[in-house]
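Lab notebook page, bench 4
Experiment: in silico fold of construct C2
Operator: M.H.
Input chain length: 214 residues
Purpose: comparison with the prior construct
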Amino acid sequence: MELEAELAAARDLDMAGIADAIERIGFECTRCGHCCKGMDEEHTATVFPDEIRAIQAGERGEWRDVARPMPYGLDADGEGETFEWALQTDDCGDCSFYDADGGACSIYADRPLICETYPFSIALGDGGATSEPMGSVVDCEGPVRAHECEGLGRAISRDEAEELAVTLKERAIRDLKEAIAVRENYEPVDVEGVVVHDSEGQKRPDGATLDAHD
């Protein structure tokens, strides 16, 4: 399915049906922190440019403090071209905004949509409408996918399921709009170092455009 067709399908998603699926699967956050930790792999939660700026505004940090180039596509030296950004991680590979002592997210109010909707995602057609969160798919109903999480299977109220359904649909639409913008703004580059292609164009790891650097 083409991205534009997936976007149209995402806009037509039935929120009541999504809420039904969430309610059947069940979920309650246990604050275990597994979705914030690298565990056996590097933590790679997708974060979009305006989400990075929102976190910057709240934390008053630099772009690099919030996000790093998505590692997929970079070579063994961490150089090359890649697509999109991932939340910054600490030396252990965990999300740098996870407070291990308190078991809480320090940017909770500004957390990206992928974090806000975990452990759920939406799949449309042959591909995924939303960026894949960590963890294998362990349950599904219609377009709703549930990924590994110890909070699955717990009772969730209808109001909470409906609220999550709204956000999950928003994320499906947003992910596809971002993917289309990345495709439309993509330009091959022949420069040294790291280049990130996102919905706004080509950037260096500090978030500045190539023109600003070069």
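Observations: The radius of gyration is 17 Å. Residues 5 and 211 are 33 Å apart (CA to CA).
Next step: discuss at group meeting.
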